Amino acid sequence: MRAVETGVAASLALLLAGCSLAPTYQVPVVQVPVAYEQPTAAAAQPALAQDWWRAFNDPVLDQLQVQLRQANPNLALAVAHYDAARAAAGETASARAPQVGFSTGPMRQRQSDDKPLRSATQPAVYDSNAATFSLSFDLDLWGRLRNAAAAGHARAQASSDDLAAARLSLSQQLTATYLQLRNTEAQQAILRDSIDDYQQALRLTQDRFQGEIASELDVARARHQLASAQADLDALQAHQAMLRHALAELVGAPASGFSVGAMAQAPTLPQVPADLPSALLQQRPDIAAAERRVFAANAGIGVARAAWFPQLSLTGLFGGQTSGSSALLDAGNRYWALGPLAALPVFDGGRRKAAKAEAYAEFDAASAQYRATVLAAIRQVEDQLVQLYGLADQRGHEEEAVQAARRTEQIARDRYAGGAVSYLDVVTAQTDARQAQLGLQDIQSRQLQASAALMAALGGGWSVAVDARD
Asked: Residue 397: beta bridge partners?
């Protein structure tokens, strides 16, 4: 007897649990390399770092990132979208719970004199007081509600990943803009030093012209060189102001009057760990969001397929009704109803067929978007590694060019002072030296920005993993 009871209980549990008509979920397959093509530098075990920009060792950048997270309006918009998605998921999941309601309606009404089956003793005007408790529970035998709830939860997770992606993108924008700002400051310092040298050269040339040692052409060349450098400085100052305005917008502050603290030291160039694994891409929030949307679309297929099967539910009513002042729940005034309810559309003009086709199409679209997101992420990482690798070689050659240009400039000055060369040689040497210095500074800035872009492409940079047993 106990075995029979156990079997009945198990069968009832299985019936209530129902089944799912969603296809077995599998993450779309994308060929991901074990490691990246370009070699990297320092040997370390990589792991994600939430505050990845701290690798630049710049307190001003750290403070700006804090302000961004507190006041950026686009980030606040992403938070609101996540809150809405989470609420929508809760709303969808609530359909799986028993639905209990209460209604009451004290009414005074009049019935028609010609009402069918009305007896002569029935009053034309009477009171109708009612109170009803209702209960309904969808058995969800085919997983319609369960899959809808799973899809809603997955969409909420995707929205959470969208929020993380927005944080990452805005942090990367802020870092790149800040590094560009510091680059303009360093370039301005180079130009100011050059302007000081050009002013001294102009005075020297004017003195030599007064002494009839140099020609007026030399003076004109010196003036042109000085004016050209001053024009370049003016352009950098205007660009610096626009970068400062962009930073103000990112941190949620008005551009007017916004200022950035002085740079205590140049940002540190982060060292990329050796053997950087492509598994870090799994932590990218946009990839995680794309995968969750594939899962939601897969569950949506289950919802669409369940629409072809009967919808079974249990319903119950309990209440009371009176036409006078007697108690609603007196024995004679009570009413109740309990029973199952089955519903199945017989003809819907192709609505369910179209909904099923739409669900499969949405799954195909979500899968394609996932694969595109992964491939784009791999390309972004490879691009930044290639750029870093190339910039490292370029920086070495540019440093040699700076040393050679400075030596050439000094030789040209000395020979001009001795009357061995014309001032054109000095102008050429000084211009080459200035361009080499500016070029080296630009390469250093591009290295920093490529490092920031690489850490963002990896989903948040890296740090040295620490064994918990240590």
From this structure: none
